[in-house]
């Protein structure tokens, strides 16, 4: 990391209480960015024996619209997703460019706080971003990024369908 550079990251996840969803069809061919998001997720999933996600063009479109909105109207702030029908992870970074892999690896850092044996998280830490990444019943992924030049901020958003993080349910 460059000396003196401001580098701050913040991550948030959504939680769900109940819902049902069905899986839409596969995306035909993927951009390098999509592939990087997907591969980083699927590595974290494979590490705990969870099947891979597949890319959804529809979810990617939704996140891309949202990322543009947050950029144009809200200076790359976190989107308010408390009532969304998809699972969502977000990463806000200041003073640095964030690749898709960096964003996912930042989320996966929460793994160190997650105890799978009793599906718990170390007190005063958060695990929800990680548990969404490895949520077995989530089948599809779509992500987008936005950069705000004035704020020197960038926002990464991924949506998951069906959503994960059901309270009291183990991710895998
Ligand atoms: C996603 O957006 C692209 C470009 O706007 C469009 O061509 C495509 O039909 C959309 N796909 C879905 C599944 O919504
Ligand atoms: C997010 O949206 C919900 C529902 O619309 C609202 O109740 C809540 O206050 C909002 N939160 C923020 C931080 O704006």
Features:
signal, 172 residues, two-stranded antiparallel ribbon, Pathogenesis-related Protein p14a, binds 2-acetamido-2-deoxy-beta-D-glucopyranose, five-stranded mixed beta sheet, CRISP-related, 4 helices, alpha+beta, CAP_dom, disordered N terminus
Topology:
Blueprint: E1 8-13, H1 32-46, E2 54-55, H2 57-74, E3 87-94, H3 100-108, E4 114-115, E5 120-121, H4 128-133, E6 140-148, E7 153-161
Parallel strand pairs: 2-6
Antiparallel strand pairs: 1-3, 3-7, 4-5, 6-7
The chain binds 2-acetamido-2-deoxy-beta-D-glucopyranose (2 copies).
Summary?
This protein is 28% helix and 22% strand. It has helices spanning 32-46, 57-74, 100-108, 128-133; strands at 8-13, 54-55, 87-94, 114-115, 120-121, 140-148, 153-161. It contains four helices and seven strands; from the N terminus they run E-H-E-H-E-H-E-E-H-E-E.
């Amino acid at each position: 990391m460059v000396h003196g550079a401001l580098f701050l990251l913040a991550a948030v996840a959504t939680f769900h209480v109940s819902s049902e969803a069905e899986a839409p069809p596969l995306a035909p061919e993927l951009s390098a960015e999509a592939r990087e998001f997907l591969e980083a997720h699927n590595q974290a999933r494979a590490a705990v024996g969870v099947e891979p996600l597949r890319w959804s063009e529809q979810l990617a479109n939704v996140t891309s619209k949202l990322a543009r909105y947050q950029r144009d109207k809200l200076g790359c702030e976190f989107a308010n997703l408390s009532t969304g029908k998809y699972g969502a992870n977000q990463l806000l970074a200041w003073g640095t460019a964030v690749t898709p892999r960096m964003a996912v690896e930042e989320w996966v850092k929460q793994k160190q706080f997650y105890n799978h044996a009793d599906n718990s998280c170390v007190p005063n830490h958060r695990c929800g971003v990680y548990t969404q990444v490895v949520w077995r019943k989530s089948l599809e992924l779509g992500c987008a990024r936005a950069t705000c030049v004035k704020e020197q901020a960038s926002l990464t958003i991924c949506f998951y369908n069906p959503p994960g993080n059901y309270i009291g349910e183990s991710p895998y």
